[in-house]
Design brief:
The protein is an alpha/beta fold and about 200 residues long. The chain has 7 helices and 5 strands, in the order βαβαβαβαβααα. Helix 2 runs parallel beside helix 3 and helix 5 packs parallel to helix 7.
Length: about 200
């Protein structure tokens, strides 16, 4: 499985270099973009687990970039963490959350806090990817079994897995997402074991 990609967006090369220094060694593929426009181009062809987005950039700022990201079906679910040198004014943070950010850090930020937050978002991404794989496998097995008179209980379990996964995908609360993802995974494993018997 390929390493999760993190898109780092900042118009200042020294800031991108600092982010890279903080995050290197965590096993992620770090991708740099020097502008909102460049970030949007990369998002057309590459999949990312997380976006670290500077707020103040010439041309398209971070808020506008985030708005474009959240409008696209392909990218709307990628978590965005805003990084800003603006003093921690409440209305700026509110703008960030309104634009679709899941977190907002003011510069200078504690490198260990950033590493920890990135770790949480990457873990959620990997769990979701695992859960999607389990659900896809179960769905494929169910489709193969459909022509062989599928037991009613298995069909109900498959519906429960799909509903738990849908709820996990729709929540913006990390802890609830984690619990729903675990529940969906457990349901999928139960359904698969019943099917194997």
């Amino acid at each position: 499985m390929a390493a999760p990609k993190i898109l780092m967006v900042d118009d200042r090369p020294e800031n991108l270099l600092a982010l890279e220094a903080i995050l290197q060694g965590l096993g992620h593929d770090l991708v740099k973009a020097n502008s909102g426009e460049e970030a949007l181009k990369r998002l057309l062809t590459e999949d990312f687990a997380l976006i670290l987005l500077d707020v103040q950039m010439p041309g398209m700022d971070g808020f506008e970039t985030a708005a474009h990201i959240k409008q696209r079906d392909r990218t709307r679910d990628i978590p965005i963490v805003f990084l800003t040198a603006i003093d921690g004014e409440a209305h700026q943070a509110f703008r960030g959350y309104a634009a679709g950010a899941v977190d907002y850090l003011s510069k200078p930020f504690d490198p260990w806090v950033l590493r920890a937050k990135v770790g949480v978002f990457i873990e959620l991404y990997e769990r979701r990817r695992e859960l999607t794989g389990v659900a896809d496998d179960l769905r494929q097995r169910l489709e193969q079994a459909a022509s062989r008179s599928l037991p009613a209980g298995l069909s109900t379990a498959a519906q429960a897995v799909a509903e738990a996964q849908r709820l996990a995908d729709e929540t913006d609360r990390p802890e609830l997402h984690r619990q729903l993802a675990i529940a969906a995974e457990a349901l999928a494993a139960l359904a698969a074991s019943e099917f194997a018997e």
